[in-house]
Amino acid sequence: MIQRRPASFELPPDTVVDTLGDAPYGDAQATPAQPELAPEQLGEPALAERELRLEEFFNGRLWAEGVLCDRRGRVRRRLRIDMQALWEGDWGRLQESYVFDDGERQQRTWSLRRFPGHDGVRRYEATAADVVGTARGRAQGNEMRWSYVLDVPLGRLRVRLRMDDRMYLVGDALVLNRIEMRKFGVRVGSLLLSCGRTDATADLELAPAPRAR
Protein backbone atom coordinates (compact mmCIF):
# COMPACT_ATOMS: atom_id res chain seq x y z
CA MET A 1 0.00 0.00 0.00
CA ILE A 2 1.32 3.48 -0.88
CA GLN A 3 0.93 5.94 1.97
CA ARG A 4 0.62 9.65 1.43
CA ARG A 5 3.04 11.94 3.21
CA PRO A 6 1.64 14.07 6.03
CA ALA A 7 0.17 17.33 4.84
CA SER A 8 2.97 19.27 6.53
CA PHE A 9 5.42 17.87 3.96
CA GLU A 10 3.39 18.82 0.86
CA LEU A 11 4.40 21.90 -1.12
CA PRO A 12 2.03 24.30 -2.90
CA PRO A 13 1.66 23.48 -6.63
CA ASP A 14 3.53 26.62 -7.77
CA THR A 15 6.55 25.97 -5.54
CA VAL A 16 9.92 25.50 -7.31
CA VAL A 17 12.46 23.23 -5.66
CA ASP A 18 16.12 24.17 -5.93
CA THR A 19 17.86 20.80 -6.15
CA LEU A 20 21.26 22.42 -5.58
CA GLY A 21 20.23 24.31 -2.46
CA ASP A 22 18.94 23.51 0.97
CA ALA A 23 15.33 24.67 0.72
CA PRO A 24 12.45 25.28 -1.74
CA TYR A 25 11.62 28.77 -2.86
CA GLY A 26 8.45 30.28 -4.20
CA ASP A 27 5.33 31.12 -2.24
CA ALA A 28 6.36 28.73 0.51
CA GLN A 29 8.60 30.17 3.19
CA ALA A 30 12.17 28.99 2.70
CA THR A 31 14.28 27.72 5.55
CA PRO A 32 17.53 29.69 5.87
CA ALA A 33 20.44 27.71 4.48
CA GLN A 34 23.08 26.62 6.95
CA PRO A 35 26.55 28.13 6.35
CA GLU A 36 29.04 25.76 4.76
CA LEU A 37 31.83 24.55 6.98
CA ALA A 38 35.40 25.25 5.97
CA PRO A 39 37.52 22.13 5.31
CA GLU A 40 39.43 22.54 8.56
CA GLN A 41 36.13 22.56 10.48
CA LEU A 42 35.22 19.23 8.90
CA GLY A 43 38.47 17.68 10.00
CA GLU A 44 39.78 17.51 6.42
CA PRO A 45 42.93 19.35 5.30
CA ALA A 46 42.41 22.08 2.72
CA LEU A 47 43.90 21.40 -0.70
CA ALA A 48 46.88 23.57 -1.48
CA GLU A 49 46.36 26.07 -4.28
CA ARG A 50 48.41 25.17 -7.35
CA GLU A 51 48.98 26.79 -10.71
CA LEU A 52 49.59 24.80 -13.86
CA ARG A 53 52.41 26.58 -15.65
CA LEU A 54 53.42 24.82 -18.83
CA GLU A 55 56.99 26.08 -18.72
CA GLU A 56 57.46 24.67 -15.21
CA PHE A 57 55.67 21.33 -15.33
CA PHE A 58 56.60 20.37 -18.89
CA ASN A 59 60.32 20.86 -18.46
CA GLY A 60 62.74 17.92 -18.35
CA ARG A 61 61.75 14.29 -18.82
CA LEU A 62 58.16 13.18 -18.29
CA TRP A 63 55.92 10.16 -18.85
CA ALA A 64 52.23 9.57 -19.51
CA GLU A 65 50.02 6.47 -19.51
CA GLY A 66 46.40 6.14 -20.48
CA VAL A 67 43.67 4.74 -22.67
CA LEU A 68 42.08 5.63 -25.99
CA CYS A 69 38.29 5.27 -25.94
CA ASP A 70 35.68 5.20 -28.67
CA ARG A 71 32.68 7.52 -28.83
CA ARG A 72 30.78 5.34 -26.33
CA GLY A 73 33.58 5.44 -23.78
CA ARG A 74 34.77 1.87 -24.39
CA VAL A 75 38.53 1.36 -24.10
CA ARG A 76 40.03 0.47 -27.49
CA ARG A 77 43.77 0.92 -26.97
CA ARG A 78 46.28 1.52 -24.21
CA LEU A 79 49.38 3.62 -24.58
CA ARG A 80 52.45 5.09 -22.94
CA ILE A 81 54.16 8.35 -23.87
CA ASP A 82 57.77 9.21 -23.05
CA MET A 83 58.37 12.96 -23.22
CA GLN A 84 61.15 15.45 -22.85
CA ALA A 85 60.78 19.20 -22.87
CA LEU A 86 63.00 22.26 -22.69
CA TRP A 87 62.27 25.96 -22.27
CA GLU A 88 64.36 29.07 -22.79
CA GLY A 89 62.52 32.24 -21.94
CA ASP A 90 59.14 32.28 -23.72
CA TRP A 91 60.04 29.49 -26.15
CA GLY A 92 59.85 25.76 -25.56
CA ARG A 93 60.06 22.40 -27.29
CA LEU A 94 58.22 19.20 -26.34
CA GLN A 95 59.07 15.85 -27.89
CA GLU A 96 56.61 12.95 -27.48
CA SER A 97 57.19 9.24 -28.24
CA TYR A 98 54.01 7.12 -28.25
CA VAL A 99 53.91 3.33 -27.79
CA PHE A 100 50.52 1.57 -28.14
CA ASP A 101 49.62 -1.84 -26.76
CA ASP A 102 49.47 -3.30 -30.28
CA GLY A 103 53.06 -2.24 -30.97
CA GLU A 104 52.35 0.88 -33.04
CA ARG A 105 54.69 3.79 -32.45
CA GLN A 106 54.22 7.48 -33.15
CA GLN A 107 56.18 10.65 -32.53
CA ARG A 108 55.24 14.30 -32.30
CA THR A 109 57.36 17.38 -31.61
CA TRP A 110 55.73 20.57 -30.40
CA SER A 111 57.13 24.08 -30.70
CA LEU A 112 55.74 26.12 -27.81
CA ARG A 113 55.44 29.80 -27.09
CA ARG A 114 54.33 31.62 -23.95
CA PHE A 115 52.58 34.99 -24.04
CA PRO A 116 52.11 37.60 -21.28
CA GLY A 117 49.22 36.75 -18.98
CA HIS A 118 46.27 39.00 -18.16
CA ASP A 119 43.82 38.88 -15.22
CA GLY A 120 45.27 35.57 -14.03
CA VAL A 121 44.93 33.90 -17.45
CA ARG A 122 48.14 32.55 -19.01
CA ARG A 123 48.23 32.14 -22.79
CA TYR A 124 50.25 29.77 -24.96
CA GLU A 125 50.50 28.73 -28.59
CA ALA A 126 51.97 25.59 -30.14
CA THR A 127 52.62 24.06 -33.53
CA ALA A 128 53.45 20.52 -34.71
CA ALA A 129 53.81 18.80 -38.07
CA ASP A 130 50.40 17.08 -37.86
CA VAL A 131 48.55 20.04 -36.31
CA VAL A 132 46.55 22.14 -38.75
CA GLY A 133 47.42 25.77 -38.10
CA THR A 134 48.18 26.76 -34.52
CA ALA A 135 47.09 25.22 -31.23
CA ARG A 136 46.00 27.79 -28.67
CA GLY A 137 46.03 27.23 -24.93
CA ARG A 138 44.72 29.14 -21.92
CA ALA A 139 45.55 28.34 -18.31
CA GLN A 140 44.07 29.64 -15.09
CA GLY A 141 44.74 28.23 -11.65
CA ASN A 142 45.40 24.50 -11.87
CA GLU A 143 43.52 24.06 -15.18
CA MET A 144 44.55 24.43 -18.79
CA ARG A 145 42.64 24.04 -22.05
CA TRP A 146 44.01 23.60 -25.57
CA SER A 147 42.05 23.78 -28.81
CA TYR A 148 43.46 22.58 -32.14
CA VAL A 149 42.83 20.47 -35.25
CA LEU A 150 44.86 17.29 -35.63
CA ASP A 151 45.51 15.49 -38.92
CA VAL A 152 45.02 11.83 -37.92
CA PRO A 153 45.90 8.81 -40.12
CA LEU A 154 43.00 6.38 -40.58
CA GLY A 155 44.07 3.47 -42.74
CA ARG A 156 45.07 4.92 -46.10
CA LEU A 157 43.17 8.12 -45.38
CA ARG A 158 43.79 11.10 -43.13
CA VAL A 159 41.03 12.64 -41.05
CA ARG A 160 41.03 16.06 -39.42
CA LEU A 161 39.67 16.01 -35.88
CA ARG A 162 38.94 18.92 -33.55
CA MET A 163 40.73 18.32 -30.23
CA ASP A 164 39.42 19.67 -26.93
CA ASP A 165 42.46 19.11 -24.73
CA ARG A 166 42.10 19.75 -20.98
CA MET A 167 44.75 19.41 -18.28
CA TYR A 168 44.40 19.47 -14.49
CA LEU A 169 47.32 19.79 -12.09
CA VAL A 170 46.42 17.53 -9.14
CA GLY A 171 49.83 17.25 -7.50
CA ASP A 172 53.27 18.77 -7.68
CA ALA A 173 54.30 16.06 -10.14
CA LEU A 174 51.00 14.83 -11.62
CA VAL A 175 48.68 16.17 -14.32
CA LEU A 176 45.45 14.53 -15.48
CA ASN A 177 44.72 15.00 -19.17
CA ARG A 178 41.43 14.45 -21.01
CA ILE A 179 41.22 14.99 -24.76
CA GLU A 180 37.90 14.79 -26.61
CA MET A 181 38.03 14.27 -30.36
CA ARG A 182 35.23 15.59 -32.56
CA LYS A 183 34.32 15.48 -36.24
CA PHE A 184 31.64 17.87 -37.52
CA GLY A 185 30.87 18.65 -33.87
CA VAL A 186 30.20 14.99 -32.99
CA ARG A 187 32.43 13.27 -30.45
CA VAL A 188 34.20 10.30 -32.03
CA GLY A 189 36.56 9.35 -29.21
CA SER A 190 38.57 10.46 -26.20
CA LEU A 191 42.01 10.04 -24.71
CA LEU A 192 42.53 9.80 -20.94
CA LEU A 193 46.06 10.25 -19.58
CA SER A 194 47.92 10.63 -16.32
CA CYS A 195 51.17 12.52 -16.77
CA GLY A 196 54.06 12.63 -14.33
CA ARG A 197 57.44 14.28 -13.98
CA THR A 198 60.83 12.70 -13.38
CA ASP A 199 64.05 14.16 -11.98
CA ALA A 200 65.95 13.66 -15.26
CA THR A 201 66.82 16.56 -17.53
CA ALA A 202 65.91 16.71 -21.21
CA ASP A 203 68.40 15.90 -23.92
CA LEU A 204 67.05 18.51 -26.34
CA GLU A 205 68.08 21.59 -28.19
CA LEU A 206 65.71 24.43 -28.97
CA ALA A 207 65.12 25.40 -32.56
CA PRO A 208 65.89 29.07 -33.26
CA ALA A 209 62.91 31.30 -32.48
CA PRO A 210 61.20 32.70 -35.59
CA ARG A 211 62.25 36.21 -36.44
CA ALA A 212 59.68 38.94 -36.02
CA ARG A 213 58.34 40.17 -39.35
Explain how this protein is built.
This protein has about 210 residues and is mainly β. It has a domain at about 60-195: Calycin beta-barrel core domain (Lipocalin). Helices cover about 0% and strands about 55% of the residues. The protein has a ten-stranded antiparallel β-barrel. A hairpin with a 2-residue loop joins strand 9 (about 175-185) and strand 10. The longest helix has 4 residues, at about 55. Residues about 5-10 and about 15-30 have low confidence and may be disordered.
Jot down its keywords:
globular; 2% helix; Lipocalin; 54% strand; single chain; mainly beta; 213 residues; ten-stranded antiparallel beta barrel
Strand residues, percent: over 45%
- Which overall shape is indicated by the principal axes computed on the Cα atoms? globular
User: What is the CATH T-level topology of one domain?
Assistant: Lipocalin
CATH class of one domain: Mainly Beta
Q: Quick one: biggest sheet?
A: 10 strands, antiparallel, barrel
Indicate the percent of residues in helices.
Answer: under 10%
- According to DSSP, the number of beta strands is 10
The radius of gyration over CA amounts to: 24 Å
Amino-to-carboxy terminus distance: 81 Å
Helix and strand composition category: mainly beta
Let me know the CATH homologous superfamily of one domain: Calycin beta-barrel core domain
